[in-house]
Amino acid sequence: MARPFRNVRALCVAGASATALMWGVAPAMAQDAADQTTGEHATVVDEIVVTGFRSSLQQALNVKRREAGAVDAILAEDIADFPDQNLAEAIQRLPGVTIERVNGQGTTISVRGLGADFTRTRINGLEAQAASGGNRNRSFDFSMFASELFNSIKVRKTQSAEIEEGSLGSTVDLQTGRPLDFANSGFNSALSVQASYNDLSEKTVPRTAGLLSWSNDSKTFGILGSIAYSERSPILESFNTTRWQKGDPTKAYGVGQNFGGCVPCTTEAQRTELLNAFYPRIPRYTFGNTQEDRLGMTGALQWRPSDRTEVVLDLLWSRLNSELESPNVEAWAFSRAAVNNVIVRDYAIDAGKNALSYGVFDNMLVRSENGFTRNESTFAQASLNVRHDFTDRLRGNMKLGLNKSEARTPTNVTYAFEQAGVNGYTIDFRGNDRLPMIDYGFDITSGKDFTLIQGTRSTSGGDFDNNVFAGALEYDWTPSITFKAGGEYRTYGFSTWGVARAQTATAGADRITGVDALGKIVSIDGKIGVPSGSDLSFIVPDISKINDFLSVYDDPLVPNRSEREVDETDKGVFVQADFNTEVANMTVRGNVGVRYAKTEVESKGWQTITVKDDAGNTTTSYDYVTAYNDYDDVLPSFNLAIEPRDDLVIRLGAAKVMSRPTLGDLTPGGGVSPTTRTVSYGNPLLDPFRATNYDLSVEWYFQNEGLLAAAVFYKDIDSFITSVTESIVWSDLGLPDELLQGAARPTDVFQVTRKLNGEGGSLHGLEIQYQQPFTFLPGLWSNFGFIGNFTYVDSEVDYGAAGKNRLTGQSKNTFNTTLYYEDGPFQARISAAYRSGYLMSFPGGNGNSEEGMNATTYVDASMSYDISDSMTISLEGINLTDEYNDRYVDETNRISDYRHTGREIAIGLRWKY
């Protein structure tokens, strides 16, 4: 089934039977432009006259086939015909690409086991940074964009000198629509509407898109505009623990993280067993009510006065707003000093996990919380691309552009009720280690014994600015050899402000017990599979009522010196030789070149300085520190494609690559989170990640739309930034107690994290691709076809004192499969995307060996029917199996967060003219 607007871009056709865009096989002009844009010499590819989805598959194979390096692509109809909520979910179907999901939708991507910080993204040829919510790193958040806004996606997995540095893994090229891509002059237009239903929230939300394009009769000038709007309203239903921790049997009851006592522990062995076992820090069932709306617009002015000259102005703007209310009730004492007062009345231990599997507790502190967060994120870009052929042999191109991403959290408010001295709190994992039975021991729908204890409000934001000027010349020295030279000048700025915070610790008339009038009852309806006997309904703060009661919105926001800035200047020059010749009756093509990159970094942040005089008096001051660093890199690269016969391509690639440190690691200031007991320090003198990449692949194009390919790759990472995490008592850090803001005590243990340049490591893997239409089968079976890919990746990285382990974010095994059917006006397809488990952090916190995510498989399906040449109806389903995200801590697989968001079923109607 076609997405409402993605099939709109299938209007970019060559004649009545092909959907060739500027990378297509039909129009000669589009082919020439593509060759000049990519700088690659194309090999001869037979014209394929097929329509719709199959045409797009063939075009993507043509892109892959003619490149010198390893490239995979998705084109307009291919993007259109998969049921994807945003751009990330469209990209995930390419070999070696996996996505991170947040709140039920894809956000960032990993390529061949390297996470989002190691992947560069360009939009219309301009490097871009898109951020939403609390993003404070170099990763590109693809959830900012509807997939309808883009005509093509390319993932470059090998490096060449002409491609700007900054990636260890890949470069993703995104291209929006342009008016001269259309086969017909004059007006082209389309409109689509869709209604999407979520079976967990039981809400229906709209999705709509439109396009209008015009070009003159001679097709020398055109203008295009497009718009896409969508909403989401899922329920985020989960059980989570945050993490697990344990006590210390060498210490007395009531000390450190030890319980206050144990009724059934009559022997020292039982006491030791109990205090050695991990227990959940904040066990709770929770759900979030989410509202999102995404609006995106593109524009393009394209002027092509002759075959020698082209000028294109591309514009892109996108906005993503989200609101989340997150009520929960939790065993608060386990994560605070109040655990020292908790008495264990009964317990059982899972020996395999060394963790409590069952417990009954007295003198428990129970907290009921409700929070509301609003995120507002925008991205804007303008880019000017100019191409001119000075002679038949000398060409030049220039690009000039800027983009800005703003990530705002203007509202983040939390209120809490608390009840102490609760007896009979019970938690039981024995029936299901992901979904325990929880009985709080009292009526948690009643507010008569709860006390309103506090309200907090904060606001924060981050800005990302990118300005680029680049140019290059190409000269055909001979028909077989082209020399290229060029360079870029780029300024990149990052700043984060806030976190400003107001906190009202209720006292006097505000500190009331008996909060029914300030609360509301919420319920988990059991779709997550909560065991019987659990408390499914509970009272939580009603945010609108307490806003009128407490003064948190009247209290001034007080900056806590968490502002950070990074200003970076990147300069690069390159020389490259492309070749395309015949050797022993074989086509041999490729490129060899070298790039020089110079990076200058100025980073700023607040630093806390504590001075003690001879009398032991302490003086604390705060300085906004500025630090400087610079480094340069020489990056040679080589790509070779050999065609021993017409249907076979053998590729070799080697390159030195670098990726700059994460922005949050560079700032010289220190960051403190009293609530989560974490501290992090930046290091402005970090060197970049550096690696040497090797690639070998064999591709067999055994028929039209058919491919069988295998690739092996190896990355020698010779400098890797690692995180060192240690458990340190706050009072030993030398930081002011004022930063605790009453949310922690100076005697509490904090997880202190610092970044250092480590020893490096290695990564290797295998990719296999297969696609084929089943035209060899009889009858209706010949209308079926298959697309599939499998990727295996393994790695070993030195994490310093923590030892060696695989890279965070790297899954060992991933696969994507699609079975499709296409017969005249009817199309259908079903897809599955599997990702094996992966690390999220190493080592883990609170004594856990690691933190990670267990394997997931997402199944989507779609179908569409052309009612007429201009009207199509569609039906699609996303996450048909309602897959759960299962986050864990420790190699023993203790539950951290077990979450689902429901299925999406959508029906749509598309009109085009």
From TrEMBL:
Record keyword Cytoplasm present: no
Membrane topology: Multi-pass membrane protein
Keyword Ribonucleoprotein: no
Compartment annotation: Cell outer membrane
Domain of life of the organism encoding this protein: Bacteria
Domain TonB-dependent receptor plug: 64-169
Signal peptide interval: 1-30
Keywords (A to Z) from UniProt: Cell outer membrane, Membrane, Receptor, Signal, TonB box, Transmembrane, Transmembrane beta strand, Transport
Domain TonB-dependent receptor-like beta-barrel: residue ranges: 429-880
Family of this protein: Belongs to the TonB-dependent receptor family.
Protein name: TonB-dependent receptor
